[in-house]
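Exercise: predict the fold of this chain.
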Amino acid sequence: MNDQTGRKPQVSFGKKLFSEYSYIVSFVLIVLIAVVVNPNFFKWRNINSIFVQSSVTGIIALGMTMVICAGQIDISVGAQVAIISGFGIEVLNYTHNIWLMLAFCLAFGAFIGTFNGLLVAKGKMPAMIATLAVQTACRSIINHFGQGGPFTVAEGIATEPYYESFRQVANGAIEVFGQRVQYPMILFILISLLFGLIMQRTRLGKHVYAVGSNQVSARLAGVDVDRTKIAVFSITGLLCGFSSWIYASRLMAVAAASAGNLFEMDAIAAVAIGGTAMSGGRGKIIGTFLGVIMFKIINNILVAAQVPTFLNGAISGAIIIIAVLLQNVRGKK
């Protein structure tokens, strides 16, 4: 909006910081709180641990950012991790090849994600209903085959070479300036950079923002809305498959009844506190990246404060509510 002189009104740096980059302010405040609670917060071992613990849900949250920016939601991601990692372990135990397992996880994840996208785009189902149905189906199937118990990597034959190779996926590391940097941390950072470029520099990214802002206008502008919706769900499924591979490597056993539990809440909370508009059309990968780290730091603060772990779900819900309310306040201003 222009003023009477025809010039755009100047926005102060402070207002712009708190409106457009509030996730940076939140990140700094949370880090300061963490330093007070834990004086050893900035030690490399602690920082590396935060990134490793964040990697699985963090990679999923990158896909969730695309979905939410497109004006959709996917609450099936936790169940996807459960079924993909469980069956992925079975593939590993049968083939003894970690790369064939990775290929299976990626393909299975892309299949589930594409199915979600088809239900939403072609079936005209609300994303919440479609992904809830898929979530229920995935949980039911993996519990049926696992009977509620664990899928274990090569139980009893841990001396096999592939066993240690697979364990190193999540537990291996490289030395950087004398510090041990684990693979999940490297993968999370690299994938975040890649998706930042996709959202900001590619046609797909522009289409995602357009669809999330206004589907009718996007369609009139020549954007294939259905194709864009299918794409974001497919990509999210693909990332769930990759995360499942890392998740199975970290644990070397996946409990059918509890694997991936509340991952969808963690991912949505990270996206929300990272500044992505839950109504769609606005959001940044860097915000989600910092949101994931913030969420894990908050968990560490709660552990230090001896808050019961059973309350994590309630805390995740509260974070989402507060983040969305703050977005609404900023939107009104």
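Check your answer against the key: The chain has a mean pLDDT of 85.
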